[in-house]
Amino acid sequence: MSSAFEVKASFKLGIIGGGQLARMSSYQAFRMGMQVGAVCSPSGTDPMEQVTPHIFRGDVSGYETLMELAKWADVITLENEFLDADVLARVQKDSGTPVYPSPETFRLIENKRIEKETFSDAGIPVARFMVVSGDDDLKKAGAKLGWPYVLKSSKGGYDGYGNAMVANQDEARRGFDKLGGNAGREVIAEETISFVKELAVMVARNEHGAVAYPCVETIQENHICTRVITPARVDRDLREQCERLAIKAAEAIDGKGMFGFEFFLTEEGELLLNESAPRPHNSGHYSIEACTASQFENHVRAVCGLPLAEPNMRSNAAVMINMLGIGSGDAVLSCSERPDTDNEEVHIHSYGKLQCRDGRKMGHFTVMGENPDAALERALKLESIIQIKGR
Amino acid sequence: MSSAFEVKASFKLGIIGGGQLARMSSYQAFRMGMQVGAVCSPSGTDPMEQVTPHIFRGDVSGYETLMELAKWADVITLENEFLDADVLARVQKDSGTPVYPSPETFRLIENKRIEKETFSDAGIPVARFMVVSGDDDLKKAGAKLGWPYVLKSSKGGYDGYGNAMVANQDEARRGFDKLGGNAGREVIAEETISFVKELAVMVARNEHGAVAYPCVETIQENHICTRVITPARVDRDLREQCERLAIKAAEAIDGKGMFGFEFFLTEEGELLLNESAPRPHNSGHYSIEACTASQFENHVRAVCGLPLAEPNMRSNAAVMINMLGIGSGDAVLSCSERPDTDNEEVHIHSYGKLQCRDGRKMGHFTVMGENPDAALERALKLESIIQIKGR
Q1: Which end of chain A is more exposed for a tag (fewer CB within 10 A), N or C?
Q2: B227 occurs within a structural domain
Q3: What is the domain range of residue B79?
């Protein structure tokens, strides 16, 4: 492992996707003097459109658009996982531009069954599951996993889409059909987990090594992450165990880049790896201010082959609150009182989305605190003060 | 003073100038969801060119180019002071777009004589000076201020350009001519100050109030700032006195925006205001990581009429080192050893300048420390490891 590095000022980082994750990664690439290009939707309103002149509009998961980016860039990364490993592999091969995370890594996580098998084979606990291909299997799943259980399409699900909780054979049949099981899509049945908390760990990894961010606690509402508490309010041993599992998971898929790993903490105190994301993740936004190197800095470092920066906490605790859109119309960030009256830190991020919609991720803010509960209490007060609304 | 605020997502910040200060301010504007436009040189290689699609190329101090920016923007600010207050006033009037710092503020600082009179009238100590308009005055200046003294053109000097140290009548005559005195340019003679340290304070100010950054110690080589030590290694009382004077100076010129004030600490322990800059300043770069709100964040907040953020130190001390270009050619940021081996923070910024030249400001890095001396010792070690070179 070499510790030296070089970055030429004309270095071009290509990002597949034009959303807020790409945008926040760009700020860090800019800081290193890099240029950033992005594949964006044809709408012309993606958050990336405002922060770089190098925009490649088109089908954001299609070969043609990705090739345009690849021909421009020195290295390519991504901000979402709704991409096809085969397409990524072809783009990498045809353009000669490396893609990180690699198509090989992508192949292991783009399919939930393969992903779970990979992690399980590496000794990382996951919820029990089985592939179901029809009525008999759905029944067997009930017997093996217990009712209710969760049906998931192997490919393409996110934020609860592509999932169905089923309580009996009849619901299972309907769920199976809804998820495309009868149309030939692979569906898995997974046991329901009674969890006491959801935890998450970000890991950056490349040829220089791997670093884990502090284990955080995530709070979801309607399958969307709304709050992240750092560090997670669990025993230190458990947090460290979670961080070790996350690094092991990154190794299991030979991940190069930034990865988010979400865990269930079960009633029995067991950690189960639930989901992985091959990119910066909402649960890591707190790191922008709360850590000495943010997930976006290490994302850029990891995919560009630079040594990783240690992500130490700058304060005892931090809480991130997602600003979900309120109402429809032109977006306005508003603060109804001065947020820093009490002289504590509050860091606001707006993603530059021009149009607000109810529940749309429009921005986030992070507050620091002496401990997680104090930070959370303060964050919840500010939640009704700092908002992004449609007008 | 209202503490509430609003920022619409389509808010457009216009910056006159395409250099690194504009670039670093942009990152903070982006974070608030804003769009950024910049007046750039026709070269197409200004640092701003890579971080926004909204570029207005042309004469960066000319009415026509500034009007293009003004018609696009909701508010205009700047990154250098080589602008004419009259032009700014016309642009503001003709476009209806507010300019901060205001043309009125600019009028008070664009001319060194008026600037010094303004500060002096406000009770802020400055070096003794007089206007010189010919041989007689040059002689009188020698008698009044003592030899050697410094001749300065009232308008347009920076980083030592536009200054001449003169030790006798003969040198004074030559200096006066070189500075355009015989061609009608206003020249002032200023006493030489034997200073023990150079100190600087950044101040953000707008209708919501004013905040001062910690008093820092700057080290210049060949009239270019190379190192900044925070806090300055002087008594706490003196630092606080310096911070109070800086706020008073910002008030004296009714400054709205971000301002840098440079002071001499004389052998007698007196503080003299030496220079002012109506913009983010090299001596404030440390604040990006060392403070809870950087000078660039407060620059954006100040000119956009948002409440200012308290700039508290995140660590006991910090040192910033300018990375001046080494050699000519394509710029390459290089690190010959891993800089974070000892697990302390080092934050590297490269400005995205494609071409390196000897002595050109190409980037900077900041390190933290338990105290100023420890941070400086570490920074000086890293100075030979982290460099930007031409190739």
Answers
A1: N
A2: yes
A3: 12-99
Same domain, B187 and B201: no
Percentage of residues in chain A with pLDDT exceeding 70? 96
DSSP-derived 3-state class of residue B266:
strand
Chain B: closest CA distance from residue A191 (Å): 41
> Residue A91: exposed, middle, or buried by beta-carbon count in 10 A (0-12, 13-18, 19+)?
buried
B46 near A CB under 8 A: no
ipTM above 0.90, yes or no: yes
Q: Does A56 touch chain B (CB under 8 A)?
A: no
Q: Model confidence at B315, in pLDDT bands (50, 70, 90)?
A: very high
A375 lies in some domain: yes
Q: Counting one residue from A and one from B, how many pairs have CB atoms under 8 Å apart? A: 155
Decide if pLDDT at B276 tops 50.
yes
Partner residue opposite A332 with nearest CB, options B6, B30, B292: B6
Q: Which of A9, A333, A340 sits opposite B7 (nearest CB)?
A: A333
pLDDT tens, A270-297? 999 999 999 999 999 999 999 999 999 9
B35-40 and B54-57 strand pairing: parallel
CATH code, domain with B386: 3.30.470.20
Q: With a cut of 60, say whether residue A2 has pLDDT above it.
A: no
Tell whether A87 lies on the interface with B, counting CB pairs under 8 A.
no
A145: CATH: 3.30.1490.20
Q: Which residues of B touch A35 (CB under 8 A)?
A: 50, 352
Residue A3: pLDDT over 70: no
**Option in B32, B335, B348 nearest A350 (CB):** B32
Predicted confidence band of residue B337 (pLDDT cuts 50, 70, 90): confident
Query: Has residue B1 been placed in a domain?
Result: no
Residue-wise pLDDT for B218-235, tens only, equals 999 888 889 999 999 999
191-250 of B, contacting A, C-beta below 8 A: none
Cα dist from A229 to A311, A322, B31, B375, whole Å: 16, 12, 21, 32
Do B200 and B265 lie in one domain? The reply is: yes
Same domain for B301 and B208? yes
Same domain, B276 and B360: yes
Measured distance CA(B298)–CA(B295) in Å, rounded? 5
Whether residue A33 and residue B335 make contact (CB cut-off 8 A), yes or no, is no
Contact check, Cβ <8 Å, A310/B343: yes
- Dihedral sign of CA atoms A341, A342, A347, A350 in order: negative
Shortest alpha-carbon distance between residue B41 and chain A (Å): 16
Distance CA(A202)–CA(A243), nearest Å, equals: 8
Please list, in sequence order, all residues whose beta carbon lies within 8 angstroms of the beta carbon of residue B280, skipping any fewer than 6 positions away.
B21, B24, B25, B79, B202, B258, B260, B295, B296, B299
Q: Are residues B245 and B202 in the same domain?
A: yes
What is the tens place of the pLDDT at every residue in A118-134?
999 999 999 999 999 99
A57-74: average pLDDT: 97
